[in-house]
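Sequence, structure tokens reproduced for reference:
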Amino acid sequence: MLLLLPPSEGKTPAPDGAAPLDLAALAHPELTTQRDLVLDALAAASARPDATTILGVSEGLADEVARNTGLRTAPTAPAAQVYTGVLYAAAGLAHLDGPAARRAQESVRIFSGLWGAVAPGDRIPAYRLSMGVTLPDVGPLARAWKPALASALDGRAAGDVVVDCRSATYVAAWRPEVSGADAADWVEVRVLREVDGKRSVVSHNAKHTRGVLAGHLLRREAEPTSAEEVLKATQELVGTVLLTEIGSGRDQTLIEVSLLDGRARGPRTLELVLA
């Protein structure tokens, strides 16, 4: 299994005195040249007066943007601790141990506009950069990362199942091959909510649900190796309360899971329905 996650918008800085960045120690060292390029371009852009505009963030995040200028010497922590937010809290990625932690290091890849893709144990500093940014001297990041990520991940995904929890912004940087010698069994995860018999796509709660699914797949005794096995593993959660809504206090229970055929050269869809 190859489990693809988006980064979180918020990042938790590593404690002062922690080891600085070592690009060569990150997963997929073949990405080092591109990481170097983006890192330098980000530092230069973040030092400009219009840095928040370039990076597409509010002025209230100016301090986080300024931190981008010193990332090479900033303290680092495992990516599973730096990335925080709804999905990561639900997955419990930072608290895995034993076989689950080893499986996560081998199987989980967190996509990033700065690093391309990293493993949960890779030590990184907190930063501010989205894959949707057009960075001076680099260009649109999703397009800039495509060749390097294809080289790093096509072979890893070949013949395996790819469980994709990313947003469209990050899918644009790398799409698994679904035909030919490098074909993968690509499955995107979609979350719906049923109210009074009507179903609609959900957003915020979808992050939590994808996190629960990610944690479940990593903690199981057997790792799925096909879309059908992912479906069976997810069906183990049917009838489980996956979240309780803040405010209303209403429980959201997984009531149905299905695997839908995809478009030509696109993913199949693992659909989770909450009610």
In short: The first strand starts at residue 2 and ends at 5. The chain has one domain: 2-274.
